[in-house]
Amino acid sequence: RNYYGGNWASFSFSGLLSWIKENQQKTDLGDECDDWKKLILEGEEAIPLSRKDKTIQHVEDFCFGDQDSAEGVEEAGALPKLPVPGASGAKEVSSGSEKECPAAESPCPEPESREPEQAMGTEPAGATEGNGAGTTSESESSPGESTLELGQTEAAPSETPAQEPKKITYSQIVREGRRFNIDLVSKLLFSRGLLIDLLIKSNVSRYAEFKNATRILAFREGKVEQVPCSRADVFNSRQLTMVEKRMLMKFLTFCLDYEQHPEEYQDHESSTFAQFLQTRKLTPSLQHFILHSIAMVSETESRTLEGLQATKKFLQCLGRYGNTPFLFPLYGQGEIPQCFCRLCAVFGGIYCLRHPVRCLVVDKASGRCKAIVDHFGQRISASYFIVEDSYLSESTCTNVCYRAVLVSSSMILCFYHKLFASQVSILTVPPVELGKPAVCVIELCSSTMTCMKDTYLVHLTCPSTQTAREDLEPVVQKLFNVNSEKGKKAENEEVEKPRVLWAVYFNMRDSSGVEKNSYSGLPPNVYVCSGPDSALGNDCAVKQAETIFKEMFPTEEFCPPPPNPEDIIYDEDEIEPEESALSNSAETKPEPSAEESSGGGAAAVTKEE
């Protein structure tokens, strides 16, 4: 690929259009030259790798806005000589590949400028509440606990009279394309999840900023409602009666320490979580909120214990960085793999873009992989090989994650027009038919640095069996207006449906549950890394990375904190040769004795002389 991150990448609008065109082309790459086969020696065999990425299928894009002539329109500030114009996934780590800032009121900083103002482990930074304009102290920060920097981006628009919303045209989206950072995979970070803990522990968090999700929404009886989840939200809610508030608080308190009360759920362990909720004397609206917006589990498949565990995890994550359990990285989910790339590059890691690999070279005697042969006909030897699953047979995995990305004109739920426009919302839409999966909807505003001003980026995700458009289009039609130019006010709703300006649907392979032994014929020192899974969080990817690392290096710590630059001690032969030019004598000086070496000051004087 010519961008970092694989299927975890983020793109500008033009970069995504290039990605769409590439994946809509069904032509397979032929073997132009067989010269590489001459590099396979006697006693070796080759395992060919796929040259066409088939993890993405059925890509369809549509424009619903005013598609005036966009021919000849270029992205503002686009660099003409970039390999993938505007693709944020193609930001180079090396010098000279600086990311150009779009001409926005909130300029895009360099990676170095995104480091937290407070040092990690000192005064904690809090989450931006609603508008991302300020920070508050973390309420549950223990002494010495490191925290994350949450972004200070554009504030919510001031209270002004409602104005006619701006008409966004397709050419405007193309022209402002560098303000978009569109993720191929849609996820949120649990504030006490494995990825947040890993980012803090490894100090990779200094390369990124985050914004907390501000709203948990529910779709019930054709209407979108905000779900109260924290104690303050529950008691301030106007949609719940006083009796329902007491019921909800009693049940949530039980979920926090349900292990201490096994008698409450033991008789229902074989039942679904939805059936268990019916036994708790909860009203239908409370059952709906808990099942779809708090636990976020399947109505027909998830058992009682799974639902209780999910509810407890949700509650434990509340309050660490805000009133919801979730964080979102500014500039998109694609920033996370790039943050790890930056730290790896500091310590000598090398990344080669546009560098196809033809095959693995296996030693017949030992059965271990000893090298790879690349597109340029050179052998690269190593002790371990980690292969992305897109290089291997697609027949091994049948699970598919269905995705849709929309650019819309307004928020899904907004009672005050532009008054509180800076929101990050998550909505779970129940299955249209019993037995089908629910659809997870994540809506991002421009303060997340993922879309242009006056637009919203909406991600829809679900696992299913048809094509993405067939499964997700009914949900899009429920929440959005895709037909008329003006938003149509839905029946019994106080606000108009937001208008979809542009959309893309695609299927993404989910091989997270495939075991290594399912890939037949792989040597023991070759490890398979799957792409993104369909879950909301990132726990699966972190567990997989740690498992592979521990198999290769069982005695080493996984992602240890990096040393400070001033604490790094270099070997004698790594000192730059220019230091020797500082000597006035051309003769080689003898090595200092043990006594001289023990005196740091004397050694320093000798070097300066």
UniProtKB/TrEMBL annotation:
Q: Where is the RAE1/2 domain?
A: 403-534
Show the GO MF annotations: GDP-dissociation inhibitor activity; GTPase activator activity; transferase activity
Bias class Low complexity marks the residues at 121-147
* Listed Acidic residues bias regions: 568-579
Subcellular location, record wording? Cytoplasm, Cytosol
Q: Which UniProt keywords apply?
A: Cytoplasm, GTPase activation, Transferase
What is an annotated GO biological process for this record, any one?
vesicle-mediated transport
Question: What is the protein's given name?
Answer: RAE2 geranylgeranyltransferase
Lineage, broadest ranks: Eukaryota, Metazoa, Chordata, Craniata, Vertebrata
Q: Which gene encodes it?
A: Chml
